[in-house]
Amino acid sequence: MLEFRHRLLSAVAGLSLAFGALPIIDAIAAEPGLQVNTEQAVPVRGDFQIGPTRYSLTLAPGEEQTVTLQILNREGRPGTYRLVTEDFAAGGEPAEPTKLYGTDDGPYSARRWVQPAITHVVLDHGQRAFVSVRIRVPAATPPGDHYAALLVEREPDTASDGMNMVSRVGSLFLINVKGTAVRSGSIDRLQSRKSLYWNYPAALRLTGTNDGTVHMIPEGSIIIRNFLGLPVDEIPIDRWIVLRSSTRSLDLAWYPQFALGRYTAEANLRVFGDTVEPL
Q1: Of the candidates 250, 223, 192, which has an alpha carbon nearest to the alpha carbon of residue 4?
Q2: How large is the average pLDDT for residues 55-71?
Q3: I need a surface site. Which of 92, 159, 213, 254 has the fewest CB within 10 A?
Q4: pTM
């Protein structure tokens, strides 16, 4: 039996997948801003991958930077992929996934700033594309975070019958425009989903609020203590992002090797470099 007092954690949705390199057997300079490599022994997974999953950039108004996005075909057949940009922002509820805005502008729009060198690419199985992406901040942009997602969509086969599902993954661009920014946030609560557990894992949820104009990355850990107050385990917190002007939750699961009796969970975190009161 595992008994918990109050405490919690929740997660921000991610959109992309990262991948490791395989031996290159051919390299093709297809067109400006695009290079395609053919790699050996790429397993057939019936999907495609892109990476990096996220870009965090700091630019001044009027400044620009070029990055490289990778696309790898693991479908076992040729595929045509389309690149589009959309704004994104935090969902309306703490546990709601990141919201994409399609052709509409988001509250902190940056989709027009993110410009891939190509809009389409055709890849055989095992080919990896390296696509140049230019990010340019307009001159009169106010300071603070602005958000966009670069989405890669597989175009459906025109010859196939029946309904087609459109597969897409994306890379998030968190663009911090230089200037006077507001850095203000808090860790609101840590809770256990239940007070009494008869089996594992124990479900915890942590909720934080970002009142500032730049994204917040709380760092630290959750300390699990037994009925004597002695620490018996630790859950690190280091990849949780709370976007500007939002409240987000992070869900965690604790899998103890052995647990019996009353346990407590304590959050010891830093927000914008400052230590917050333990929860």
Answers
A1: 192
A2: 97
A3: 159
A4: 0.83
